[in-house]
Amino acid sequence: MEIIARWYETGAPMRICIEGARVAEAARVDAAPGGMPWIAPGLLDMQINGYRGQEFSSDRLTVEHCAEIVEATAAFGVTRFLPTVTTNSLATLTGALRTIGEACSQDRRIAARVAGIHLEGPYISVQDGPRGAHPHVHCHAPDWDEFCRLQEASGGRIRVLTLSPEHPGAAPFVSKVVASGVIASIGHTAATVRQVNEAVDAGATMSTHLGNGSHPLLPRHENYLWAQMADDRLTAGMIADGHHLPRHLVKSIVRAKEPRRCVLVSDLSGYAGLPAGRYQTQLCELEILPTGKLVVAGQEELLAGASRPLCEGISNVMDFAGIGLAAAVDMAARRPAELLGLEVAAPRAGSAADFIVFTLAEGRAEGGARLELKQTVGGGEVLWQAAS
Ligand SMILES: [Zn+2]
């Protein structure tokens, strides 16, 4: 396979030849007069909860569901992602983690695309607001033995654990989690500034969807948002879908953290991707509006989950924070891979053949350029191609 496109960091037109799962040869070429698409490393989404009516955190999850969700994500430019298992009963968590593990061990193609598992909860805040939609009854203080059993059920695949440092014993728990090779990420929290600081001192290195999963009102100075924004040891996860965070907050986070300490996530709900209409879930009745926005039924402003793919976040963050293409793409591709210690594709012989090809179209309603995905290549194969 051969791709001719401009490398996203330099703008240099490149011919990239792929053989098997690797780049065989990459060389600079003359620019075509009619313009050229862009090429960048495949996106890595650290937070996908499910798709098209199937959540990962479910008793009904099967190996086939995992395969379907993996396949669907290629249309978003996602070549690797972390299936995200959210707070549930111990039995459901164990079963879901085991099923994802089985899907990976049975199918090499799934294993190549599942970069690990994100366990979001159950060691999060019990308070309304910070807890978000996680069921109250299952949220609790950290329990090392329980976490070890969950990690075992997953076959050692949990790579990120979202927790709140507000519980007693959180800091020593974070130390153990980090020592076991898992990223401790602060989220769904009602922690004090001191508790945030203690968790970071203990080794926490991320914030989960900073600015979401929080109280509607906070003390103006002493609060967990400022504490996390100010700490350079934390990389901020952000849902830049245009609904979860206002543009001024996206810009403020990017300026405070610098782009190199920001990661975009989709946080796609298991109900994303379904046709517009109303759906009854375990927790509430959901409505998918004709725009694709996921809300509590009948309440158009009350979000019930995220439904926009990661590639849209790249266009949004360029516009909201006024940053360039390379910095924005890196937030969805390079940074998450680096956090997880994984290879990032490059235009040179021997690199993983893991790329997205896209164009930038002007005329986005909100302003700025719109990233239009043309092709997703993973493991040297075309995983998805836009209809021409
Ligand atoms: Zn969350």
Structure report:
The protein is an alpha/beta fold and 388 residues long. It has 2 domains: 77 residues, Urease, subunit C, domain 1 (Roll), CATH 2.30.40.10; 297 residues, TIM Barrel. The protein has 11 helices and 20 strands. It has an 8-stranded parallel sheet. The chain has a 7-stranded mixed sheet with strand order 3-2-1-4-18-19-20, with helices on one face. Strands 15-16-17 form a 3-stranded antiparallel sheet, with no helix packed on it. β13, α8 and β14 form a beta-alpha-beta unit. α5 packs parallel to α6, α8 crosses α9 and α9 packs across α10. The longest helix is centred in the N-terminal third of the chain and has 17 residues. The two termini are 18 Å apart. The mean pLDDT is 95. The structure holds zinc ion. The site of zinc ion (ZN) has 5 residues, from loops.
Quote the average pLDDT: 95
Tally of individual domains: 2
Spatial order of the strands in the main sheet?
5-8-9-10-11-12-13-14
Q: If helices are DSSP runs of H or I spanning 4 or more residues, what is the number of helices? A: 11
Keywords:
about 400 residues, alpha/beta, TIM Barrel, 2 domains, 7-stranded mixed sheet, binds zinc ion
List the topology elements.
Elements: E1 2-7, E2 13-19, E3 22-28, E4 38-41, E5 43-48, E6 50-51, E7 54-55, H1 63-73, E8 78-86, H2 90-106, H3 108-113, E9 117-120, H4 144-153, E10 158-163, H5 170-179, E11 183-186, H6 193-201, E12 206-207, H7 224-230, E13 235-238, H8 247-257, E14 262-264, E15 277-280, E16 285-288, E17 294-296, H9 310-321, H10 325-332, H11 334-339, E18 355-361, E19 370-378, E20 381-385
Parallel strand pairs: 1-4, 5-8, 8-9, 9-10, 10-11, 11-12, 12-13, 13-14
Antiparallel strand pairs: 1-2, 2-3, 4-18, 6-7, 15-16, 16-17, 18-19, 19-20
Helix pairs in contact: 1-2, 2-4, 5-6, 8-9, 9-10
Bound molecules: zinc ion.
Residues 120, 132, 188, 209, 213 line the site of zinc ion.
